[in-house]
Design a protein that fits this description.
Helix content: 25-40%
Number of strands: 13
CATH topology: Spore Coat Polysaccharide Biosynthesis Protein SpsA, Chain A
Order of helices and strands: EEEHEHHHEHHEEHEEEEHHEEH
Bound molecules: uridine 5'-triphosphate
Distance between the termini: 23 Å
Shape: globular
Structural class: alpha/beta
Radius of gyration: 18 Å
Number of helices: 10
Strand order of the largest sheet: 8-11-9-10-12
CATH superfamily: Spore Coat Polysaccharide Biosynthesis Protein SpsA, Chain A
Length: 279
């Protein structure tokens, strides 16, 4: 049974260019790339629903209209396949459309993830909210990763980032944290560095694309100057909260696929296919 949501809104920053998937992403959003038959963003929405959320706020950009169309009824198509065996292929998406409210805003200039989250503020208001980066596909045996994080939020009532141990040579692709382990796999964050070189990384604990953020993050983001790569980094804003002891990092249970990279995308496709054909 789903728990009552302590957090109702999930934000999906989906305005990035997805340059690693060019030319596929030239006119199609990266978030619409399918793993088997479902686009990445649908997996994300399902994970948010599994965590008890039903309000999905999506930050889009130019060329991303397919996302809005996906979470809408396609009358012609549905009429066409009505009464055929194919009708059931739309059952999951129809369920999502029935249960969730979607709202959208556009990020006009792609000034980084922190900026994309700040752009979503009018869709959220002043309440704690979740963030899913749909190109990080998370799968778990039972409870979804975001649902695990909501349970933690109920206990700690502060911002939470999901982390995993990575190969120390790859720290320059991630935000990296250090902190005190207060429970097994749960850290009170003291340091966060965006994309450090392996020599400068405080640990090999990397932030992946799942967050729960308290709304003061918006005030902080408003003041946050461009950081690494000239972008407004969510890591820099979170570091402000961490200074007050208000960020928890959580080694989630489950597996993450970096579907923003070709290797991760192919691995997810193969492993989910194997899983499906086993059944
Ligand atoms: P990435 O670093 O994966 O960038 O963004 P990208 O543009 O999507 O992909 P590449 O690197 O060019 O292939 C991480 C997440 O932050 C969002 C992206 O959509 C993705 O979900 N993002 C990033 C924004 O929404 N706006 C931005 O300005 C930057």
């Amino acid at each position: 049974m789903k728990k009552k949501a302590a957090i109702d809104v999930c934000l999906f920053p989906a305005a990035g260019y997805g340059t690693r998937f060019l030319p596929a992403t030239k006119s199609m959003p990266k978030e619409m790339l399918p793993i088997l038959t479902k686009p990445l963003i649908q997996y994300g929405v399902e994970e948010a629903m599994n965590a008890g959320m039903n309000t999905m706020a999506i930050v889009t950009g130019r060329g991303k209209r397919a996302i809005e169309d996906h979470f809408d009824i396609s009358y012609e198509l549905e009429h066409q396949i009505k009464g055929t065996s194919k009708e059931k292929m739309l059952a999951d998406i129809r369920h999502i459309i029935d249960k969730c409210i979607f709202s959208y805003t556009r990020q006009i200039e792609m000034k980084g993830l922190g900026h994309a989250i700040l752009t979503g503020k009018p869709l959220i208001g002043y309440q704690p909210f979740a963030v899913i980066l749909a190109d990080d596909l998370c799968v778990s045996e039972s409870e979804g990763v975001l649902s695990q994080m909501v349970t933690l939020y109920e206990k700690y009532q502060c911002s939470i980032v999901a982390i995993e141990e990575i190969d120390p040579q790859h720290t320059d692709k991630y935000g990296v944290i250090a902190g005190v382990e207060i429970e097994p796999g749960i850290f009170r964050v003291s340091t966060m560095v965006e994309k450090p070189s392996p020599a400068d990384a405080p640990t090999n604990l990397a932030i992946i694309g799942r967050y729960i953020l308290t709304p003061d993050i918006f005030d902080i983001l408003q003041q946050t100057k461009p950081g690494k790569g000239g972008e407004i980094q969510i890591t820099d804003a979170l570091m402000e909260q961490a200074r007050e002891g208000n960020v928890i990092a959580y080694k989630f249970s489950g597996k993450r696929y970096d579907c923003g990279s070709i290797d991760g995308y192919v691995q997810a496709t193969v492993e989910l296919y194997n899983e499906m054909t086993k059944k």
